[in-house]
């Protein structure tokens, strides 16, 4: 997708955004970033038209009036902009470093233009947690190193008795400089970096990257490639939802369901291997199409998918109908529909509050929106609702894959790419990953080189929801609540 690019002055930015959002249903302020620290870049999506606009606002100095004061959904992105570009959002209600910790130089801004480095403001990198005061209030620090293989992140609980009064989440321990690296590697090899942004979301990241590149190159992939991409995207959603539902059962102590889901996830990964040559489908989706098509495997994929669906059904029903499991998940970790709309929460967490936003319904990605399934929603906003949405999406992913398998036609699965990217262009990829709305934004310079590459992982929208959901719940409820959001540390840290 090529977004409409326009320039909006700093004085008119807030009012212009408000007017634009009021101009149509479902319109979203999706993302805030910068190219090089000389301007703000605001990405706006209009789902009903399937279009996007990218607004650039030139800045005169190293600060601007915080957009968070008018649009709460910007608060996380403005923290990242401060870290990466040194642009301070004046008036931000909770301005704290997001990605760069104390070990970095105070005036180090890795994505800021070199000629602006001397103008950067000295800032103290000391991170101060919110202190909750009162007799009997105490803190529980957890992480950043956790048991098992979970990624690193620090959770600071302020508690009274067994009740959580506040949770502050500190991330950034996995910051790898992915966005900068994507401007340094050869653009034809950038796909390997892009799909590694979050390793459990390899297909969705690879697809968003491919769509952005193909938009700039003005190429269309063969219908067979679109079909195979759709199957891969749904296989990734299927395998991750299976393991997440199994993880919910494990945290409840429902080990029969947990063990069965682990085994069934293995079956979904075997189908992925038959399709792509490896279980996590790395290197399968490429700009221009897909890397291989093995027609001889399609019959086996169809048979194994049917077998997987038959084996999943009784296990999911057992979990869905168990009264103990229901009571353990109901009315815990609740977020409201109003919170979702104000903070731009996406994916399963949003759909569990009856917000039916799913980018597959609106934006071109594989065979979508033509093959988009009905959106699975629930309305209680609690752990149970998020689990039921995942179960529903397991069913719809299987149905989509089965339908696409019946539509496969042709043998061509890729087209040749041009030798260079078009100059001074902006390409945008919007994909519904298993966690929600995923954005890849690519800008080229006058020579066709990538000058800015930005990724908006769905977890960046949703970490705030976890902090709010667990308030006034028991400490013992946190592992289950955390699992129900299934957020990515690496997807945030980039």
Description:
The chain is an alpha+beta fold. Helices cover 39% and strands 16% of the residues. It has 15 helices and 14 strands. The chain has helices spanning 13-22, 75-85, 178-181, 190-194, 202-217, 223-252, 255-276, 298-321, 323-329, 337-343, 347-351, 383-407, 458-469, 478-485, 489-493; strands at 4-7, 28-33, 39-46, 51-58, 63-65, 88-90, 137-142, 154-160, 163-170, 285-286, 289-290, 426-433, 436-444, 450-456. The strands form five sheets. It has a four-stranded mixed β-sheet with strand order 1-4-3-2. The radius of gyration is 22 Å and the shape is globular. The mean pLDDT is 96.
What overall geometry do the principal axes of the alpha carbons give?
globular
Helical residue percent band:
25-40%
Percent of residues in beta strands = 15-25%
User: What structural class do you assign from the helix and strand content?
Assistant: alpha+beta
Our measurement of the CA-to-CA distance between the termini, rounded to an integer number of angstroms, reads 23 Å
Work out the radius of gyration: 22 Å
Reading the helices and strands in chain order gives EHEEEEHEEEEHHHHHEEHHHHHEEEHHH
Number of helices: 15
Largest sheet: 4 strands, mixed
Q: Identify low-pLDDT runs.
A: none
Strand order in the largest sheet: 1-4-3-2
Question: Averaged pLDDT, please?
Answer: 96
Count all strands and give the number. Answer: 14
């Amino acid at each position: 997708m090529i977004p409409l690019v326009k320039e909006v002055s700093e004085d008119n930015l807030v009012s212009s955004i408000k007017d634009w959002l009021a101009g149509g249903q479902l319109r979203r302020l999706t993302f805030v970033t910068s190219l090089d620290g000389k301007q703000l870049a605001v990405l706006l999506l209009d789902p009903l038209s399937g279009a996007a606009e990218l607004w650039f606002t030139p800045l005169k100095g190293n600060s601007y009036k915080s957009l968070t004061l008018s649009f709460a959904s910007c608060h996380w992105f403005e923290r990242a902009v401060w870290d990466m570009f040194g642009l301070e959002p004046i008036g931000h209600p909770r301005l704290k470093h997001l990605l760069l910790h104390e070990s970095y130089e105070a005036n180090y801004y890795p994505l800021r233009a070199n000629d602006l480095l001397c103008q950067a403001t000295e800032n103290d990198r000391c991170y101060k947690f919110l202190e909750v005061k009162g007799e009997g209030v105490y803190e529980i620090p957890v992480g950043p190193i956790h048991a098992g293989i979970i990624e690193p992140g620090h959770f600071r609980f302020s508690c009274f008795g067994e009740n959580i009064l506040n949770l502050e989440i500190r991330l950034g321990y996995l910051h790898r400089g992915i966005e900068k690296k994507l401007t340094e590697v050869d653009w034809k090899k950038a796909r390997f970096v892009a799909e590694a942004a979050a390793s459990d979301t390899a297909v969705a990241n690879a697809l968003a990257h491919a769509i952005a590149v193909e938009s700039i190159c003005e190429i269309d992939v063969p219908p067979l490639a679109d079909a195979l991409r759709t199957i891969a995207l749904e296989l990734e959603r299927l395998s991750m939802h299976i393991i997440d539902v199994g993880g919910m059962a494990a945290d409840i102590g429902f080990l029969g369901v947990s063990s069965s889901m682990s085994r069934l996830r293995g079956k979904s990964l075997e189908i992925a291997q038959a399709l792509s040559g490896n279980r996590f489908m790395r290197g399968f989706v490429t700009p221009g199409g897909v890397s291989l098509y093995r027609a001889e495997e399609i019959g086996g994929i169809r048979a194994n998918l049917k077998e997987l669906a038959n084996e999943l059904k009784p296990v999911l029903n057992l979990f869905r109908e168990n009264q103990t499991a229901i009571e353990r998940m109901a009315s815990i970790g609740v977020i409201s529909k109003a919170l979702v709309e104000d903070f731009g929460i996406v994916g399963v967490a949003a759909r569990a509050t009856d917000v039916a936003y799913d980018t597959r319904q609106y934006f071109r990605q594989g065979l979508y929106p033509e093959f988009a399934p009905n959106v699975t929603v629930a309305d209680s906003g609690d752990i149970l609702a998020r689990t039921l949405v995942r179960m529903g999406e397991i069913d719809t992913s299987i149905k989509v894959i089965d339908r696409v398998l019946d539509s496969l036609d042709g043998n061509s699965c890729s087209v040749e790419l041009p030798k260079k990217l078009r100059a001074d262009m902006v390409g945008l990829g919007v994909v519904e990953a298993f966690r929600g709305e995923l954005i890849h934004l690519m800008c080229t310079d006058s020579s066709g080189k990538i000058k800015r590459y930005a990724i908006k992982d769905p977890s960046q929208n949703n970490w705030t929801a976890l902090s709010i959901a667990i308030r006034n719940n028991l400490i013992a409820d946190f592992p289950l609540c955390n699992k129900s959001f299934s957020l990515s540390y690496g997807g945030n840290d980039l």
